[in-house]
Amino acid sequence: MELTLWTYEGPPHIGAMRIATSMKKLHYVLHAPQGDTYADLLFTMIERRGSRPPVTYTTFQARDLGGDTAELVKGHIKEAVERFNPEALLVGESCTAELIQDQPGSLAKGMGFDIPVVSLELPAYSKKENWGGSETFYQIVRNLLKDYFGESKQTWQEEKRRPRVNLLGPTLLGFRCRDDILEIQKLLGQHGIDVNVVAPLGASPADIIRIPDADVNVCLYPEIAESTCIWLERNLNIPFTKTVPLGVGATQDFLRELHEILGMEIPQSVNESNNSKLTWYSNSVDSNYLTGKRVFIFGDGTHALAAARIANEELGFKVVGLGTYSREMARKVRPAAKALGLEALITNDYLEVEEAIKETSPELVLGTQMERHSAKRLGIPCAVISTPMHVQDVPARYSPQMGWEGANVIFDDWVHPLMMGLEEHLIGMFKHDFEFVDGHQSHLGHLGGKGNQNVNQEVKTKISSDSTTSNSDPIWTHEGEKELSKIPFFVRGKVRRNTENYARQAGCREINEETLFDAKAHYKA
Q1: What proportions of the chain, in percent to the nearest 5, are helix, strand and coil?
Q2: What Å distances lie between residue 410 and 53, 238, 246, 318, 429, CA to CA?
């Protein structure tokens, strides 16, 4: 049934493809039928890449299943190595090919190539895309660095050089990874810290071999890099950072943590409040409009956790919902939600998330592309903070999420929908004034202005029908609808549902303005 619905993550071989496409001089042979080659479109349509992924598909068909599919696999592996001449080879299978059990990785290792062959075993029916990306990156690093066990090295102070770090975790189809790397590189350079390797994005197998040259690993995206960072710490004694620099407070904590690990003095500039405009605005008079705004947050674990901290501590919002689709990050999200007095929502069903949004009636949704659609249906402002995303969330301009500039971008992306929501409220209040012309619309279009009353009524009817399955729904009178329209749009749905529930309990067949006032008094009592 899930195949007929939107999904937050694809199967694990999509995660492996993200790693392969992010790297250079690497090739991925994927044992898959014709129908499993759709993933190319993700990179050309969303990332807008000018070249297709470095992936060779075996593309077996139904008629091939009656023959020797193992020989088909070996033929494609041989052709891929001869044609692309990679420094390392990834070999795996899609969810459909997993059922055939040809074990393409073992076949490749027995073909006598003089390049590293990384066999990927990704259980498609129990794991998802981010886990597949994490496991692929881990297997690449482990295979290429297996000969480095036990090697000791001098500290950067002993070698009389600047400290070096690796930036681990950024990939294609990640959320603003390209710009995050540039921002963190600039930030570290300002503090006298060099970047040794960025991986997997832009790295080659030769770059992976240089990872031990760094003093610290910076784990930018735990969903992809945390398992690799743990392995490198245990086996190569390279410590790694635990703080992701998303937001002003987290960026300050990240710099303090990194300086402490490196044994560097923490500069006073880390604590200065003028590093980001977000801090200035949060202390300004204009920010009073933001204080206490109800916000619902859902996305991958890293960005959802960061968003909750920024919303609660830096913008003065009230977090009314927090969750993630990443079950690997659930252990981190649950205590964060509990600290906010909430129960974490851990699900990969976007319809369940939409129901939670309805129930909490937020004034702003911070989520994925899925939540953008849900919020649009409900007439609630929304900002996308996490994958899955659409092409509009892969801007051509510089638009990081991490570091000081990332905090500025986050502030703009989150606050502007709320400010435009204020515009919508004002239009709703004054749309009957003589100065307003028929058809005037706000930025939400279908939800504002007198010229869209029919569409607006459809949205209201949809919200009302979702609240109950009873056949005895009360009918709203013209006066009742007119009074309801005076209520701010972001709580109008909740008021409508509460009033209808009250009318049923009171046995009212019609809801007029008097019924609306009675319901308001009832729920306040």
Answers
A1: 55, 10, 35
A2: 30, 31, 9, 17, 29
- Known catalytic residues are 286
Distance CA 357, CA 380 (A): 10
Helix (H, G, I), strand (E, B) or coil at 383: strand
Q: How many CA atoms lie within 13 A of 202 on its CB side?
A: 12
Please say whether the beta carbons of 364 and 375 come within 8 A: no
d(CA 49, CA 143): 29
H or E stretch covering 56 = strand 55-57
Q: pLDDT tens for residues 244-279? A: 999 999 999 999 999 999 999 998 888 776 777 777
CA angle 16, 171, 255 (to 5 degrees): 135
DSSP assigned state of 95: T
Q: What are phi and psi of 6, to 5 degrees?
A: -60, 150
pLDDT digits (tens, 9 = 90+) for 108-164: 888 889 999 999 998 888 899 999 999 999 999 999 998 876 567 888 999 999 999
Query: What 8-state DSSP symbol labels residue 114?
Result: S
For residue 223, the 8-state DSSP code is: H
Rg (CA), the chain: 27
Per-residue pLDDT tens digits for 220-238? 999 999 999 999 999 999 9
What's the rounded Cα separation, in Å, for the pair 401 and 405?
7
Cα 16 → chain centroid? 17
**pTM for this model (two decimals):** 0.80
Cα separation, 208 vs 215, whole angstroms: 15
